[in-house]
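Hi all, long-time lurker, first post. I run a small reading group and we've been trying to get comfortable going from sequence to structure in the token notation. Rather than ask abstract questions, I figured I'd post a concrete chain and ask someone more experienced to write out its structure so we can walk through it together at our next meeting. Sequence below, copied exactly:
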Amino acid sequence: MDQRMVEFIAALRSSGVRISLAESADAFQAVEAMGAMDREIFRTSLRATLIKEQHDQALFEKLFPLFFQVNQPPPMHNGAGQLTAKEAHMLAQALRQMNQALRQMMEKLVNGEPLNSQELRTLDQMMGSDQYTDLRYQRYLARQMEKALNFQEVKDALKELAETLNKMGMDSQHLKDLMKAMQANHEALQEQIRQHSGEAILRNLVEQQPPTPQNGLLNRPFQAYSENDMAQIRKEVSRLAAALRTRLALRLRRSRTGQLDFKSTLRANLKHGFVPIELRRRNHTLKPKLVVVCDISTSMRYCSELMLSLLHAIQDQISKTSAFTFIDHLEYVSPYFEHNLPQRAIEEVLRRMPGGYYNTDLGFSLFCFSEKFMDMVDHRTTFIVVGDGRNNYNDPGLAVLKNISRRARATIWLNPEPVMMWGTGDSDMGRYAEVVDHTFQVSNLNQLAAAIDQLLVH
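-- Answer (accepted) --
Happy to help. Here is the structure in token form:
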């Protein structure tokens, strides 16, 4: 219990609750005096000693049941226990017709085997579970793990298996019992993954260092932001934008003289006997022209919002920015920024495309762009995509992106996911990276600002 309390206090501190060592000691003394057998008294003792601000109570109430309840692994059953030897042979024969990965999952469902610790660790590595420190992403992380395990294909395979075994002559009652057990085991695996994703996030909360007021917040991953964090971050955007604007203005000013044009200098100085009295230089003062396409699905919303805010704040140093957002379709959002303050414009964009469980489809959005807006891309345009490259197994639209890359001056991709996750599950990022000119991994606001600074250098 003491260790669990230490972890609970660490998670509260990592989430921004101010708890001193003396207050932590008070909590242990209160629990020692009041006991931990009565759950309500135990909860009240911790809340009274650890929580000082009213706005922290909601976080306490959210974390408490996650740390102080026992999550038993979901029960699973052997579905083949009632089969005869002949029926077991039918089942084995039907399973051998499937590919290896699908057959392994189906065998787990038949035998009632949960995911082992090695399989869970592999899932964590594939999904980058150590990046998530906000419990709001528990369901999202669980869904990503299910996709990595091909759960949708498993559901389809269950139906096909039932049809195959029926045709092979398996007893109808035995077949019904087998399918019922496999469906129950499938649901148990889903529950195991949901519990594991929650436990992974709790571990990250415990291990995460408490945020420092400004600089620490700028270095926190986008997935770890809360609404309170975003309120502070939005104030920091103007400061970062001012620094970016200053650096870009200095570069443009220095480039006004351009590079020495040797041939023009010689022609201009024919009258001086080729003595270079009058120098001629190339003009390199053109401001950048940008087209930005931002994914604003739930997992990408904060990153894309901050990208649009930064670009709007430095518009005086950019020739033109054409901004688009997408989830399952494309929206042209530049008009919202023409007559509104940045925050009001972004609120309107997010209102038109609210968060939810959409099927993100960048390929279709790129196709819509090519049909309606391709004339925005020319040899002066830098084309930027802000997204995680996950298409839910839809057509990634690589042919369209290749055509855009041929027309544009440069194509840039900003992705907040860890590089090790690119190309895993439904991610097409590995294929996109081969098409675009540059990729940046931007998991926090400081990295995002640095990436914008670099892409505007040229």
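A couple of things your group might point at:
Strands lie at 289-295, 320-326, 330-332, 381-386, 410-415, 438-441.
The longest helix spans residues 172-207.
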